[in-house]
UniProtKB/TrEMBL annotation:
The lineage of its organism: Bacteria, Pseudomonadati, Pseudomonadota, Alphaproteobacteria, Rhodospirillales. It comes from Dongia rigui. The chain crosses the membrane at residues 68-90. This is NADH dehydrogenase subunit 6. Keywords: Membrane, Transmembrane, Transmembrane helix. It comes from the Bacteria.
Amino acid sequence: MNAFRLAALTLIASGTLLLVLDVIENLLSSSWSGMATGYLWSMIWPAGLRGLRSFIETNISVFLWQRVLMPILMLPLWALMLIGGGALLFSGRKDDTQP
């Protein structure tokens, strides 16, 4: 098994599990509020998120942080995992063309 396929299937399985857990939590609370990736990251490792922000704003661009990465960090983690897993699965597929 290709390393891309293994990583892709791991991301897809993890993303699906997080989606199911998010749906169950939202059904029990009677409201839809997906947990944002940035919020989860700040709960697990707040210094890492602050460090990334200061690095990007000082060394690369404030625009990149505010207009590109912040909207990505507002997405639910399960969505990012499913998108990333799908991209890896697509990029790791075998080429079936004959020479």
